[in-house]
Design a protein that fits this description.
The complex is a heterodimer of chains A (about 280) and B (about 290).
Chain A: H1 9-21, H2 26-43, H3 48-63, E1 80-85, H4 92-105, E2 110-115, H5 122-133, E3 136-138, H6 146-160, E4 164-169, H7 177-193, E5 200-206, H8 212-224, E6 228-232, H9 242-250, E7 254-258, E8 266-268, H10 271-278
Helix pairs in contact in A: 1-2, 2-3, 3-10, 4-5, 6-7, 8-9
Chain B: H1 2-9, H2 21-37, H3 42-56, H4 67-83, E1 98-103, H5 110-123, E2 128-133, H6 140-151, H7 164-174, E3 182-187, H8 195-208, E4 212-218, H9 225-236, E5 240-244, H10 254-262, E6 266-270, E7 278-280, H11 283-291
Parallel strand pairs in B: 1-3, 1-4, 2-3, 4-5, 5-6
Antiparallel strand pairs in B: 6-7
Helix pairs in contact in B: 1-2, 1-4, 2-3, 3-4, 4-11, 5-6, 7-8, 9-10
The chains are: A alpha/beta (about 280), B alpha/beta (about 290).
The structure holds guanosine-5'-triphosphate (GTP) (2 copies) and magnesium ion (MG) (2 copies).
One guanosine-5'-triphosphate sits at the interface of chains B and A.
Chain lengths: ~280, ~290
């Protein structure tokens, strides 16, 4: 629609292609286009630029419903506990390394918890992120019970008056019932140790994933209750448009986006920037 | 599902008649929707639907099948044909040691898959050697060492301070004299748009001349699959594809996108985290899965 002179079917087809290739999904795309189509009729819009703006505004509306403006709030006392979850390879451990950097820069003390006791070298990987950030990592042996690592870590955090505790969990497909049960148990054990914890259950989604992210969000939410999202690998060519549907359906705020592999490559989610990038 | 949707489209078309341009339009719309929901890339869906239309129009409505079933049969057959007719295996009979190189985006499952292939080769009586050429990801070399130990396959000693190309060259030398007959090179995950790192892959290829360059991709990849696969193929001239994490509930339309754009065989699928979880790719099973 650059250089397009009128609002016609061809323009709508172009917009449909943009949204679908951005992974918004065919259903969400149809809802959005139907909505702006009605708007065009109602307001007798003529200018393609006005149509594009209407579409962007509608997507923004999906992304920032008032409930979505809930920020992570530090508790009155005791550590703020974040549990990081998601399927295999999406960037949980790396995102934790980046969050540690962000919290330290803000003057908070941070403790990392190596509760991925399953995957080869997962503990070592998190320890390196701990070293890079000069923050401690609580870990046990590979194969230990993840709940017991989390439990011990909270004792340690309370004793040391740590501000932020971030728990790394093993990647797991949301369809694996026993693994989702394990996650529920980690959450229960953490809550037993500290009544209000975990204060944040952060689901990490990979921007290159397609419609399956919806299934992931649904299942993780059903199992442990997701309170925030992180969307990684936006430095690639994938647009991550699937979050438009997820935010709309599940009311989950997007906390951060990952734009690279270094510890500085974490940004707060900016809805307007995100929507602009969908059309770039 | 698609069968039900197509039954609805054709509910007034029975017995004798032909599939016409008109009554096929709604059916094609349903097929298009199903494929997009399954994450097949937009352009691939467009071409696919066009092909199906050409094959469907003018067909007699055969007595034994409903028109909806007929369209499904055409779609299914076309999908199977596109996904790859016969099962393809690894090319292991060339000059020894054979080098198999794994490449792909971050987190797609390369390191785990390298170990899975090594384990299979060991079972087949070969002498595999794992080569950790990822010097960037924290504990990547350690990860491959742990996996190698687990399956009893030696891992080339490497440090994160070394150059990946040098590591690969040294590994080939270490395999000399028939000590190892198959090298599995695990490379660092990278973006197709990272020029420096894509150049590194080309340098590794030039240095060790792999018999197989396998693109390892996540089965749940969305629309971006076509862009990524096209670039990896353009830069490396892939010999095959491996789709991982297939035991989940992703429809796996990326399989069709990647196969269409690269025309390289999908050789294996990863179906779990344990090192036995590697299977041969079945086009017919994948076709049914994509159609939902
Ligand atoms: N380009 C890019 N790569 C990323 C980003 N976030 C993570 N990665 C990379 O993705 C790969 C996987 O990251 P991990 O942090 O190990 O992912 P994970 O979810 O902890 O993986 P598992 O624990 O095995 O489930 C690594 O190579 C990371 O460097 C990002 O925002 N951009
Ligand atoms: N469920 C499932 N998980 C898998 C499969 N293959 C690999 N994984 C997991 O996916 C995650 C990433 O695997 P890696 O082997 O570290 O991926 P990678 O491509 O080497 O990652 P980078 O080196 O960071 O690019 C790990 O948690 C693996 O256990 C599979 O077929 N199914
Ligand atoms: Mg991890
Ligand atoms: Mg790896």
């Amino acid at each position: 629609f650059r250089g397009k002179k009128q609002i016609d079917q061809e323009l709508f087809d172009e917009l449909e292609e943009i949204l679908i290739t951005a992974d918004l999904g065919v259903g969400t795309t149809q809802d959005l286009l139907t909505h702006v189509q009605q708007q065009v009729k109602r307001e007798a819009l003529q200018d393609p630029a006005a149509l594009r703006q209407a579409l962007m505004d509608r997507i923004l509306y999906y992304l920032r419903r008032p409930e979505l403006e809930s920020h992570m709030v530090m508790p009155e006392s005791g550590p703020f506990v974040i549990m990081v979850v998601g399927v295999n390879g999406v960037g949980k451990t790396t995102t934790i390394g980046k969050m540690a950097h962000k919290f330290k820069q803000a003057g908070q003390s941070v403790l990392l918890v190596a509760a991925d006791t399953f995957r080869a070298a997962a503990i070592e990987q998190l320890k390196i992120w701990g070293e890079r950030n000069a923050v401690e990592v609580v870990a046990q042996k590979s194969g230990a019970d993840p709940s017991s690592v989390a439990y011990d870590a909270l004792d340690y955090a309370r004793a040391r008056e740590i501000d932020v505790v971030i728990i790394d969990t093993a990647g797991r497909l949301h369809t694996k019932v026993n693994l989702m049960e394990e996650l529920k148990k980690i959450k229960r054990v953490v809550a037993k140790k500290l009544e209000t914890a975990p204060h944040e259950i952060l689901l990490v989604l990979d921007a290159t994933t397609g419609q399956n992210s919806i299934s992931q969000a649904r299942q993780f939410h059903e199992s442990v209750g997701v309170t925030g999202l992180a969307l990684t690998k936006l430095d690639g060519t994938a647009k991550g448009g699937i979050v438009v549907n997820i935010c709309h359906e599940f009311n989950m705020p997007i906390r951060f986006i990952g734009i690279g592999e270094k510890m500085e490559d974490l940004r707060d989610f900016e809805p307007e920037e995100f929507v602009k990038a969908l059309f770039a | 599902n698609l069968t039900d949707r197509l039954q609805k489209v054709f509910k007034d078309l029975r017995g004798h008649g032909t599939l016409s341009e008109e009554n096929i339009q709604d059916a094609l719309r349903e097929v298009r929707q199903a494929l997009l929901e399954a994450d097949v890339s937009f352009k691939v869906v467009k071409d696919f639907v066009k092909t199906v239309a050409e094959r469907a129009v003018g067909q007699e409505v055969v007595g034994s099948l409903s028109p909806g079933q007929q369209v499904i049969r055409i779609v299914h057959d076309e999908l199977v044909a596109l996904l790859g007719g016969q099962t393809e295996t690894l090319k292991l009979d060339g000059r020894q040691p054979v080098v198999i190189m794994l490449a792909g985006l971050q987190g797609s499952g390369k390191t785990t898959t390298a170990a899975k292939i090594a384990k299979q080769l060991l079972k087949k009586g070969r002498r595999p050697y794992l080569v950790p050429a990822d010097v960037y990801r924290p504990a990547a070399i350690h990860q491959l060492q742990v996996l190698g130990e687990r399956i009893g396959v030696p891992v080339h000693p490497s440090q994160a301070s070394e150059d990946p190309v040098a590591i690969c060259r040294a590994a080939v030398l270490a395999a000399a004299g028939g000590r190892f007959d198959t090298l599995l090179v695990d490379t660092a995950g990278r973006l197709h748009v990272d020029a420096t790192l894509m150049e590194e892959l080309r340098r590794i290829k030039a240095a060790v001349q792999p018999a197989e360059i396998l693109f390892v991709a996540d089965a749940m990849t969305g629309q971006d699959a076509v862009t990524v696969a096209e670039k990896f193929n353009a830069d490396l001239d892939l010999t095959g594809v491996i789709l991982t994490k297939m035991e989940g509930d992703a429809r796996g339309g990326a399989a069709l996108s990647i196969k269409s754009i690269t025309n390289r065989p999908i050789k294996f699928v990863g179906v779990g985290e344990d090192l036995d979880a590697l299977e041969v790719f079945h086009p017919d099973r994948q076709a049914s899965r994509i159609l939902g």
